[in-house]
Amino acid sequence: MLFNPFTLIAQIFFYMSNNSEHCCLSCGIDISDKRIDAKYCSDRCRMRYRRAQKNSKLVNELIDLFTQIPNHSVHNTGEGVCLQSYDAINGKTENWWGSELRSMSNQRLKDLIKKKRVLLTGDVIGKFVKKFFQNS
Predict the structure, then answer these.
(1) Phi, psi of 45 (to 5 degrees)
(2) Which domain holds residue 12?
(3) Co-location of 8 and 60 in the same domain
(4) Strands, DSSP E only, in the chain?
(5) How many domains does the chain have?
(6) 102 shares a domain with 37
(7) Helix, strand and coil in the chain, % to nearest 5
(8) What is the residue-level pLDDT of the chain in tens, covering all 136 positions?
(9) Global confidence as pTM
(10) DSSP secondary structure, 72-109, as one string
(11) Please, what is the Cα angle at 75 between 127 and 26, to 5 degrees?
């Protein structure tokens, strides 16, 4: 493939015209002094952004689980989302706010998802057994 200087110049003008204010995706500071294709101001911001993306996927997965499990609910409030679970055996209610979920480590979120999946599969098996014995 031959090097075409006009293509490079066209790309530079495209970036300059569309990105008059070139900002870091993570912290939002101006990075117009960096490379044209730069997305972050530093490696620290790059990693922070990637971790936040992973974390948001896990939070969305947890919200999906909460909508499927009995005695679990998702509330949208003015401050954000709140996940609530009620343990009928102990009579305890647990709440997780969106800000708390976003600040949790990925491993803690994965552990919570794992714990809630066990509840979901246990509930599905319980419903199946109950239905099986009702039909007998």
Answers:
(1) -65, -35
(2) 1-41
(3) no
(4) 72-77, 80-87, 92-97
(5) 2
(6) no
(7) 55, 15, 30
(8) 455 655 666 666 655 555 557 899 888 899 988 888 899 999 999 998 998 888 889 999 999 999 888 888 999 888 788 999 888 778 889 898 988 888 888 899 999 999 888 888 876 666 666 666 676 5
(9) 0.60
(10) EEEEEETTEEEEEEEETTTTEEEEEEHHHHHHS-HHHH
(11) 115
